[in-house]
């Protein structure tokens, strides 16, 4: 699933929350493979309301296009089924909203893009979780890292971004929020990382805007249930 797609007719970016069935039906296309995507706003098994998103219709092996990604995303000859936890998805919404709040009137919502593609010097592509794309061309990357990762991997990915002039902010949470990673971040960026804290709520509330976690069907995670530990200044984020 993805929070964004491209319009096949124009190649322009479309955020799922801006989907209009009258304008966009049969025009939504996967950004990573040559295939249409379907718009959804509920969980296909349970019907539970979730964040509006797009589901790819491509069922073949990856890759099938000229886009080549780092193995962290999709491995060659692996069935293409991009999937993120609902915590990761809600984390992206939280970070986008946080950046808008910090910037106040200085940042327009249309400057923020989910799942932004950038090409690295190696020819491979990276996918930025939340990108702030400025009118003058600068890009600021915000990466939500919840899965286990080492300081060496974080540094390699940070160097990738630096090599093409992109500043990156790592939002650490869950398994990625380790002492070693926090210490590395402090040494590398001269500031501590923002840490995402998730709170699970009982599904009895089932409020619109909350998302069911596939791995814990009796819990909901929403951006309202995320808090941040940070001692950074607001201009550290863009």
Please render the helix and strand layout as text.
Layout: E1 4-7, E2 13-15, H1 21-24, E3 28-29, E4 37-42, E5 49-56, E6 61-62, E7 78-79, H2 86-103, E8 112-119, E9 125-133, E10 139-145, H3 151-163, E11 167-173, H4 179-189, E12 195-198, E13 201-202, E14 211-213, E15 216-221, E16 226-229
Parallel strand pairs: 10-11, 11-12
Antiparallel strand pairs: 1-2, 1-3, 4-5, 6-7, 8-9, 9-10, 12-16, 13-15, 14-15
Structure described in brief:
With 238 residues, the protein is an alpha+beta fold.
Report what the structure shows.
The protein is α+β, with helices and mostly antiparallel strands and 238 residues long. 19% of the residues lie in helices and 32% in strands. The protein has 4 helices and 16 strands. The protein has helices spanning 21-24, 86-103, 151-163, 179-189, and strands spanning 4-7, 13-15, 28-29, 37-42, 49-56, 61-62, 78-79, 112-119, 125-133, 139-145, 167-173, 195-198, 201-202, 211-213, 216-221, 226-229. Strands 8-9-10-11-12-16 form a 6-stranded mixed sheet, with helices on both faces. Strands 2-1-3 form a 3-stranded antiparallel sheet, with no helix packed on it. A 3-stranded antiparallel sheet has the order 13-15-14. The two termini are 27 Å apart. Mean pLDDT is 78; it is low at 202-223.
């Amino acid at each position: 699933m993805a929070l964004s797609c491209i319009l096949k007719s124009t190649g322009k970016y479309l955020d799922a929350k801006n989907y209009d069935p009258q304008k966009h039906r049969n025009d939504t296309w996967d950004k990573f493979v040559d295939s249409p995507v379907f718009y959804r706003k509920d969980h296909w098994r349970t019907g539970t309301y979730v964040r509006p998103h797009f589901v790819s219709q491509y069922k073949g092996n990856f890759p099938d296009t000229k886009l080549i990604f780092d193995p962290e995303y999709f491995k060659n000859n692996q069935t293409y089924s991009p999937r993120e936890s609902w915590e990761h998805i809600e984390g992206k919404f939280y970070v986008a909203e946080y950046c808008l709040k910090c910037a106040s009137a200085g940042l327009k919502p249309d400057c923020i893009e989910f799942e932004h593609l950038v090409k690295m010097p190696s020819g491979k592509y990276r996918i930025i979780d939340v990108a702030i794309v400025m009118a003058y061309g600068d890009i600021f990357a915000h990466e939500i890292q919840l899965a286990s990762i080492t300081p060496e991997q974080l540094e390699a990915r940070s160097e990738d971004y630096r090599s093409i002039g992109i500043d990156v902010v790592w939002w650490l949470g869950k398994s990625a929020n380790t002492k070693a990673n926090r210490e590395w971040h402090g040494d590398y960026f001269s500031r501590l990382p923002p840490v995402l804290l998730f709170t699970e709520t009982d599904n009895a509330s089932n409020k619109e805007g909350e998302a069911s976690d596939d791995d814990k069907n009796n819990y909901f995670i929403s951006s309202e249930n995320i808090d941040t530990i940070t001692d950074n200044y607001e201009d550290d984020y863009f």
